[in-house]
Design brief:
Elements: E1 6-8, E2 18-22, E3 25-28, H1 41-47, E4 55-57, E5 60-62, H2 64-77, E6 83-87, H3 98-106, E7 110-112, H4 118-128, H5 136-140, E8 144-148, H6 152-155, H7 157-163, E9 167-171, H8 177-180, E10 184-186, H9 193-206, H10 212-217, H11 220-229, H12 233-240, H13 244-254, E11 259-263, H14 273-287, E12 297-299, E13 320-322, E14 333-337, H15 341-344, H16 348-356, E15 359-364, E16 376-379, E17 388-390, E18 399-401, H17 414-424, H18 433-442, H19 464-467, E19 472-478, E20 483-484, E21 487-488, E22 494-496, E23 507-512, E24 515-523, E25 531-535, E26 562-567
Parallel strand pairs: 6-14, 7-13, 8-9, 8-11, 9-10, 11-12, 14-15, 15-16, 19-25, 22-24
Antiparallel strand pairs: 1-2, 2-3, 4-5, 4-16, 17-18, 19-26, 20-21, 23-24, 23-26
Helix pairs in contact: 3-17, 4-14, 9-11, 9-12, 9-14
Bound molecules: ligand MGD (2 copies), iron/sulfur cluster and molybdenum atom (MO).
GO molecular function: iron-sulfur cluster binding; metal ion binding; molybdopterin cofactor binding; oxidoreductase activity
Domain Molybdopterin oxidoreductase: 62-421
Protein name: Molybdopterin-binding oxidoreductase
Length: 568
């Protein structure tokens, strides 16, 4: 290892930390503002990963060169339009996008939409064109932070550390760590967030808390208020399960205070996730949270690449399939990079059936669940063995990754594989690695200021509470501290409230319209009585989730489902 070189944490996380090598040891960089010298358990696990040391073809070890020869001959033999390129978020460095530029040029089908934040992002962009967070320093200036559908202290522990002494209000069906540390916890029924936002809007108006300066600039605010008035306060109270007393308490806490809202994935894992998010953002606008003379702003998962021009050519003519609905078996070859669809994509059985009926090439760092179905495995080298830049969806600081270790003999970086493929097909247009890195390191991006806000004025939601039978539960799936999506310390339990009548260690079958799976029960008061909870990475969770995409952004909707539980 070389001396005093920085390394970016590659993991898919709001914080995008930077480490530094000091005397051969890897530590959190004190000079990197959000990192402030600390790294988390997931970084340590990532550093200790059992990295793939060999390529494999039909489960037999082969050399890296042999794997590249097989890939090239396959790609030359088949029709590009019968191939699919599928990229996950195992490593979020900018250089990870290089391979897509090859497959786009080659003529593969690509994917569109997201398994993550797509619905909510679409909703916010309808309000204010782009999904960009204010600078993180503005969050530090808030007195009160509303944490809405986000497990703030767990999924962005460094951002939490910057503001942990503030007053918090949490809106979440689960009693999360941040909910326990909040002045007020509104434990609403799942998928009733838009109703809570409209209820809060009515109260804000009654208490004269509407930001008239902000709203008068955009005439759509009146229609939004009409929408909020279209139902009775009591019907909102009944639907959300949030008492009017708690709503009053909400306004007592924020009165005369500088307020910020941090919004997470929880509100948008549904068919109408975009409009639900849009409704919450419209409530925030009504209250004046976007007006930085009064308040701090709204934070979601920001478009980290805003202001940067892609340094990789992309052929916009490629056909694209919705990422959640991909039928792998339709293709002669699928190339999977940095993903674990067998665990992380919705509807596991459908994913497995698809993968069994095609030629799967997997390029990743570890032998994950998807590798069982891979015909060819190409090992990607670890983040310490490649240069990169990490942009963040949680704050505006970048983290720089230097190559601090030699590449293992039988592994390759994404950029080097891309270059090899470009050369083998005599393609041109791939920029030099150093030039690309230099661009991302040196580019300065100005903060985004929006000049138009389009309040939502109509919303139609299919209410899960109207469909739900007495013996059914809402399905909640969210992140956990010691694992990062499907990597590291995986928790396969099903969490239930003791009032459900089930016992710890019961073996149960969970059934939904889309599938069934077995789990072992763990009881906790933290889960609402009408909900069940599985953490991300749970190997059985996605057997019961729908593979259909949401209403407007081709994205996943893991919680648009009701489940029943039986002893197995
Ligand atoms: N430790 C750790 N950190 C991570 C990750 C990880 O796996 N582990 N993953 C990273 C990734 S990929 C992402 S996208 C981010 C996501 O980070 P977050 O935005 O925090 O997303 P989640 O943890 O999926 O869900 C957030 C919260 O929404 C709540 N929720 C569920 N349904 C509803 C609802 O209907 N209404 C409301 N109001 N709340 C609801 C859940 O109970 C949960 O507490 O975290 C990143 N950070
Ligand atoms: N039930 C349920 N399902 C979910 C979620 C949930 O909360 N609940 N969350 C969803 C969300 S928010 C997300 S973002 C997705 C994530 O889903 P995916 O994008 O599929 O991510 P992971 O499952 O973490 O798989 C990442 C894989 O990337 C590989 N990898 C790591 N580093 C590198 C590298 O440097 N190069 C290459 N080539 N590969 C690498 C590793 O082998 C690892 O197994 O899952 C979604 N699925
Ligand atoms: S908090 Fe997130 S970015 Fe920071 S070290 Fe941990 S996983 Fe990486
Ligand atoms: Mo994500």
């Amino acid at each position: 290892m070389s001396l005093n070189k920085t390394v970016a944490c590659p993991l898919d996380c709001y914080d995008a930390c930077e480490a530094i090598i000091v005397n051969g040891k890897i530590r959190g960089n004190k000079e990197h503002f959000p990192t402030n010298g600390n790294l988390c358990a997931n970084f340590i696990s990532c550093n200790k990963e059992d990295y793939l040391k060999n390529a494999y073809f039909e489960n037999k070890k082969i050399s890296l060169q042999e794997s590249l020869d097989i890939l090239i001959s396959k790609l030359k033999d088949i029709e590009p339009k019968n191939t699919l390129f599928y990229k996950g978020s195992g490593n979020l460095g900018v250089m990870q996008s290089s391979l897509k530029s090859f497959f786009a040029k080659y003529g593969s089908i690509l994917t569109k939409g997201s398994l993550c934040d797509g619905g909510g992002g679409h909703g916010i962009s309808l309000n204010r064109q782009e999904v960009i967070n204010p600078p993180i320093e503005k969050l530090q200036k808030a007195d009160v932070i509303i944490v809405w559908g986000r497990n703030f202290s767990v999924t962005s522990s460094h951002l939490y550390e910057l503001v942990k002494d503030k007053t918090f209000i949490t809106i979440d069906p689960i009693k999360t760590h941040i909910a326990k540390n909040s002045e007020l916890h509104l434990s609403l029924n799942p998928k009733t967030d838009y109703e809570l936002a409209l209820l809060l809007t009515r109260f804000a108006y009654m208490q004269d808390l509407e930001d008239e300066d902000f709203c008068s600039k955009f005439n759509s605010s009146e229609d939004f208020f009409e929408l909020a008035k279209s139902r009775s306060v009591l019907s909102y109270e009944e639907a959300t399960g949030v008492s009017l007393e708690d709503v009053n308490r909400f306004f007592e806490i924020i009165e005369n205070k500088k307020v910020a809202l941090v919004l997470g994935l929880g509100v948008q894992k549904y068919y109408e996730g975009a409009n639900i998010t849009r409704c919450i953002d419209s409530f925030a606008a009504f209250l004046g949270l976007h007006n930085d003379k009064k308040h701090s702003g709204v934070w979601y998962l920001s478009n980290s690449k805003y202001g940067y021009e892609s340094q990789f050519e992309s052929n916009t003519l490629n056909k694209k399939e919705k990422v959640t609905e991909v039928d792998f078996s339709k293709y002669d070859l699928v190339f999977i990079q940095g993903a674990n669809p067998v665990v992380s994509s919705p509807n596991t059985q459908r994913v497995i059936d698809g993968l069994k009926n095609t030629f799967v090439v997997f390029m990743g760092t570890t032998y994950n669940d998807t590798c069982k179905y891979a015909n060819l495995i190409i090992p990607s080298c670890s983040f310490l063995q490649k240069s990169d830049v990490r942009l963040s969806y949680g704050h505006q600081y970048k983290a720089i990754s230097n190559k601090v270790q030699e590449v293992n003999e039988n592994s390759i970086s994404e950029y080097d594989l891309t270059k090899y493929l470009f050369d083998s097909f005599s393609f041109d247009g791939l920029k030099d690695e150093d030039k690309i890195l230099e661009y991302y390191i040196n580019k300065k991006v100005e903060p985004y200021v929006f000049d138009n806000f389009e309040f939502i004025d109509d919303i139609e939601i299919n209410h899960l509470y109207e469909e739900k039978l007495d013996n059914e539960f809402y399905f909640i799936t969210a992140k956990k501290k010691k694992n990062l999506n499907s990597s590291f310390k995986i928790d396969n339990y099903l969490y239930l409230n003791p009032k459900t009548g089930f016992k710890n260690e019961d073996n149960v079958t969970l059934t939904s319209k889309y599938g069934k799976a077995n789990f072992i029960v763990k009881l906790t008061e933290d889960v609402k009585e009408n909900c069940v909870l599985c953490y991300a990475g749970n190997k059985n969770a996605n057997y019961i989730t729908p593979y259909f995409s949401d209403e407007s952004s081709s994205s996943a909707m893991y919680q648009e489902v009701l489940v029943s539980i039986d002893l197995s």
